[in-house]
Amino acid sequence: MTPSHPKIEQPRLGEPYLLTPGPLTTSYAVKEAMLKDWGSWDDDFRAMTRELRSSLLDLLGDGADAFDCVPMQGSGSFSVEAMLASFIPPEGKALVLANGAYGQRSAQTLQYLGRDHIVLDKGDYLPPRGDEVARILADDPAITHVVAIHCETSSGILNPVEEISEATYAAGRKLLIDSMSAFGAIELRPSDIRYEAMVSSANKCIEGVPGFGFIVARKNELEAAKGNSHSLSLDVHAQWAHMNKTGQWRFTPPTHVVAAFIEALRAHAAEGGVAGRGARYTRNRDVMVAGMREMGFETLLDNRWLSPIIVTFFCPADEKFVFDRFYNLMKDKGFIIYPGKLTVVDSFRVGCIGQMDEDVMRNVVRAAKESLEEMGVTNAAPPLRALEERAKLAA
Ligand SMILES: *Cc1c(COP(=O)(O)O)cnc(C)c1O
């Protein structure tokens, strides 16, 4: 069967594939789009900003009319901070659902902002469930907002945002979603999942280069956000109002990054939008995970929780396995992998997003196999402790 997605190009000679969830491997067309300079006030660039905003809103599907899109300079965390500061009023209180580094970062951001909050800390990877959210909200009427991470990139778990949303709105509270690593590949339709605002960035599933993020929020929330932000540069309301009035960003926009992103959005549409992109990433994951499991590697999560974004594997128990060595052997073969972020057992991560298809993933598996052979590791099975840890998820 021929793949349905447009042709995937090899990175240029000598460039490794980035099996990391952003920055990731981009197409040549995306890189080439940056070979020009734009005046930030010029009509041509204003048209690009308009196209960017409307194309992103189109990805919401039904119900998009109630929302608007506000791009924001900086990395993804800048947009998360902008969202939290702008939509949670100073007198509000947030419940942060944390099961990894990005949930913790949202909590830390609220700490910096001086916003009252509590954290449901599920450890390294256990999913926050709807019934837990319902209980906490019932016990604490002061909570106004719930903050959820869509795909927690530090483990790769796809969190159950649908049941979280149901519990949140059943209790009359509001939901804000960090969909940084999921948006563009996993549906987040307001007609299916209710939320007030969500954030993502240029260098994740849309496959652009790093330089800005974007907040997609209900227009009534954008109106109401006036005066909430602690920060001039991260004020979502101010950026939105200025952009609607002038067509321009308030401060110097990352012009080349926007140009690259427009190209990336076109490729995203040509691939079949969110469904097409998600299907390619899912095949990437399935081919890669099957090949790794055949060698004895085990995933942290069972299939129900695996995202098509990034997958955590336990390091093999074999003493001859040394992660730094494995990393460098993989890099020599053209693949940059990611260290793990689990606190209890050694692990590493392999991303499925970026300009890669299942053929590339077969080569990733082959490279892992050769790397193990070069280290003298005959079985990639993890230590018993890792499997005991994983059993917590099933319990
Ligand atoms: C990438 C990412 C972010 C933002 O990280 P930056 O390094 O600031 O771009 C936030 N949340 C999640 C879930 C992410 O994957």
Write the layout of secondary structure elements.
Blueprint: E1 17-18, H1 28-32, H2 43-58, E2 67-73, H3 76-87, E3 93-98, H4 101-113, E4 116-121, H5 130-139, E5 145-149, E6 151-152, E7 157-158, H6 161-170, E8 174-178, E9 197-201, E10 212-218, H7 219-224, H8 236-246, H9 255-270, H10 273-294, E11 310-314, H11 323-332, E12 335-336, E13 338-339, E14 347-351, H12 358-375, H13 384-394
Helix pairs in contact: 2-9, 3-4, 5-6, 10-12, 11-12
Describe, in plain words, how this protein is organized in 3D.
This protein has 395 residues and is α/β, with parallel strands linked by helices. The protein has 13 helices and 14 strands. It has a seven-stranded mixed β-sheet, sandwiched between helices. It has a three-stranded antiparallel β-sheet with strand order 11-14-13, with no helix packed on it. It starts with 16 loop residues before the first strand and ends with a helix. The model has no long low-confidence stretch (mean pLDDT 95).
Short description:
This protein has two domains: 17-22 and 273-394, Aspartate Aminotransferase, domain 1 (Alpha-Beta Complex); 29-270, Type I PLP-dependent aspartate aminotransferase-like (Major domain) (Aspartate Aminotransferase, domain 2), CATH 3.40.640. The chain has 13 helices and 14 strands. The protein has helices spanning 28-32, 43-58, 76-87, 101-113, 130-139, 161-170, 219-224, 236-246, 255-270, 273-294, 323-332, 358-375, 384-394; strands at 17-18, 67-73, 93-98, 116-121, 145-149, 151-152, 157-158, 174-178, 197-201, 212-218, 310-314, 335-336, 338-339, 347-351.
